Q: What sequence folds into this?
């Protein structure tokens, strides 16, 4: 990797990639493999985008960003294998602890007390699956009922399902765990897109976190973008925020903060839509594309890792997961290493909790988290050795996680502009993926698709 | 006015204003009047922002942007008087034509046929007024029921009012006429903010367009920004898109496309929130401010003026207004001059119509508009001398009209970041106004407030 200030002159390539997240790096790799020259411009002083592994102690990796892969994440599995990175199973043995309906109950006790609530949630998930079966993830706006479903919010539709307060809350928590915004901010069609892009709702929404989050990378997810960047070498340029993309004839000129430029014949913008919208395009982009980027805000997610000398809850038959109506964390996870090092609970603050408790002073929030974990995992949980936190909305080159979903009417009125190339500009980023959009798996697919567009564009222009 | 390319060196001032719309120019004027030096940087090659008057023929002015002032727009009236610009009454004599419930009916006939529907709409408006009375336009998130109202969309709440299809449609058309997005894209709290910022719903939503749109400017609205800019002279710099605002110590450095800079101690960003969010801030802005700018999309509005040799509908007892379920225009207006020159019908395509018919090829859309007007105003309406159109989402330095409203949870989770200054940065633009937010009146208020903040900031720093 190089730094913009250290690279002389104008950068030249066949393809410029904007953004060295997983999607941009995947795209760059495929461009290189096809024998074309590439330059990747990254605004930040590191690669990885929404992947960020912190080595808290030797061999102890905290995933401040993307953490898991699922059973059907075939592109990610192949990529990890190629890069020599192995996986380990997410720890899941034992009971989940629930705080719903004013009581803390674990595993079987919760299910006995709330059998009907769980059944009602499962009925709703089956109904979502039936609706999602009519939605094409590549074109959600073509679903027979797209127009109606895009005018209803998920929250509104959930409210109409005749659920008990506990069932409704359970559904909210599981859904916010995916969308990272309150369910009233996303349309029913938007949720159905999230279901179908991942297969079925059980892969996505079920409390067991089955499909999407079954395994982790030994040594941390961060190795993936780092190894991809290492392959690309000096073609990855850091601290190079792109502010302008100008197209003139066969040439695309990409201008960075400070005035330095890169020139190519194609460009791949591998950023979340809202950040892609902050670049100045010359000539200006069509209205539909610009208004789309105004309508896909980055979600609101904050992770807090509570680190203990050992995962003491395991001996107590607990899996380190909780689901809570009280918060601040609505969900937690056992985020320990493969080799059972220290005990690590990852507390998720998502949607409203990221915006309320996530903005509290750290001491106030951490006190509340310690108290919450003690309610579920016992008094030892009140005394972590350390708490490490990360809030994605603060990061200037990210501005929110996990991904972006449009609000009502977004898919039907603007959806086609999400991934359709415009002249020599292709769009990548996990939001543009068809399968597992919003996940690392989707980032790789999107990078691959954008690279194919760019390569084909180069060929066409050379044949002319 | 000057052009950035013609101005040598770094621009220096006490205050830099970003954006030469009405709000920015108003702010600059007040800064100058307080004896401080100001530079206004405008991205476009003209001043006015969302004000744009086209002189179609000598003395015939088409308002492609802001057109009317209301009876209580005291700041705008005072400003116009100071600038020597007079007003004339919007033509309103005669019947409105309705196309609802599958029939075209005019005035009294419609009211006879739909007496109960109109009464039901009026009942809903009274209920909105009662709710709005509990909302503080300066802090909508403090309303006792803010949390609940911000999780319901306007469309959802309207649907729950037990209205007939005709009454529901009438309410949709009137509301979209204000918001310029489908009612499912804005929360009930957002609509209540729109009501209370304008007084009562009758000022805003009533089909008579009473409060907000009673008079127009002789010679065109465009004279107002032009005369304000003329007063400021070379302090207004055109074709100077701001890409970066850097704060270091007591100095703010504002960098334009191409690298030219302006330096000051305070800056006023007088742009719609979404465009303000496209600037790179150094140091980065707080998460809450950044995420707000991701959540206030510019609305979708398109104006089509159909121009005839005379306003023939007037002789037929029609006022040139229609309200239609069929479209493409859901509303029209007689946009003739003060002196009864040519006949001009202004057809509004707002919200979904701006996004559907607004994207049609011009010929297809204009054929549909001619046919629609003929249904209401007779066969002469099918043969305009000319059609002039303007779509605001296309304009690269505007990207949507009339203004911006956040979606569900926007006001309660991000509202305080809309107008609170951040260090030496103040925010203007009509969206930040308390009274008549979204209107020219609000733009002037917002400019005035931001200028006061900047002036006070200068004084405080000088006393230290």
A:
């Amino acid at each position: 990797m190089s730094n913009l200030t250290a690279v002389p002159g104008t950068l030249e390539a066949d393809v410029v990639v904007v953004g060295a997240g997983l999607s941009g790096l995947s795209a760059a790799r495929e461009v290189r493999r096809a024998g074309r020259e590439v330059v990747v411009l990254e605004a930040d002083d590191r690669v990885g985008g929404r992947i960020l592994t912190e080595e808290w102690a030797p061999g102890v990796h905290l995933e401040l960003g993307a953490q898991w892969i699922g059973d059907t994440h075939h592109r990610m599995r192949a990529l990890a294998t190629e890069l020599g990175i192995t996986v380990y199973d997410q720890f899941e043995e034992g009971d989940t602890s629930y705080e719903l309906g004013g009581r803390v109950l674990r595993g079987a006790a919760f299910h006995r007390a709330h059998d009907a609530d769980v059944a009602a949630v499962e009925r709703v998930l089956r109904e979502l699956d039936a609706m999602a079966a009519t939605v094409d993830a590549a074109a959600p706006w073509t679903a027979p009922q797209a127009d109606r479903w895009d005018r209803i919010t998920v929250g509104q539709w959930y409210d109409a399902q005749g659920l008990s307060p506990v069932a409704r809350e359970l559904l909210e928590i599981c859904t916010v765990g995916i969308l990272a915004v309150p369910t009233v901010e996303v349309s029913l069609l938007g949720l159905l897109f999230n279901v179908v892009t991942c297969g079925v709702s059980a892969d996505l929404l079920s409390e067991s976190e089955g499909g999407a989050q079954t395994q982790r990378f030994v040594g941390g997810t961060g190795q993936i973008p780092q190894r991809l960047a290492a392959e690309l070498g000096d073609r990855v340029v850091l601290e190079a925020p792109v502010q302008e993309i100008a197209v003139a004839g066969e040439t695309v000129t990409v201008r960075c903060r400070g005035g330095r430029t890169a020139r190519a014949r194609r460009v791949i913008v591998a950023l979340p839509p809202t950040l892609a919208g902050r670049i100045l395009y010359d000539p200006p982009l069509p209205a539909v594309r610009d208004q789309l980027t105004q309508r896909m805000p980055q979600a609101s997610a904050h992770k807090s890792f509570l680190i203990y000398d050992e995962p003491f809850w395991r001996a107590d038959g607990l899996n380190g997961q909780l689901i809570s109506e009280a918060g601040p964390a609505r969900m937690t996870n056992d985020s320990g290493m493969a080799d059972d090092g220290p005990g690590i609970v990852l507390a998720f603050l998502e949607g409203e909790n990221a915006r309320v408790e996530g903005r509290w002073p750290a001491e106030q929030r951490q006190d509340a988290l310690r108290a919450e974990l003690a309610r579920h995992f016992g008094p030892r949980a009140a005394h972590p050795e350390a708490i490490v936190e990360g809030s994605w909305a603060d990061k200037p080159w990210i501005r929110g996680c996990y991904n972006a979903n449009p609000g009502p009417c977004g898919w039907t009125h603007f959806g086609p502009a999400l991934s359709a190339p415009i002249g020599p500009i292709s769009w990548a980023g996990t939001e543009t993926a068809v399968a597992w959009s919003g996940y690392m798996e989707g980032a790789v697919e999107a990078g691959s698709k954008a690279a194919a567009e760019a390569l084909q564009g180069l060929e066409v222009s050379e044949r002319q």
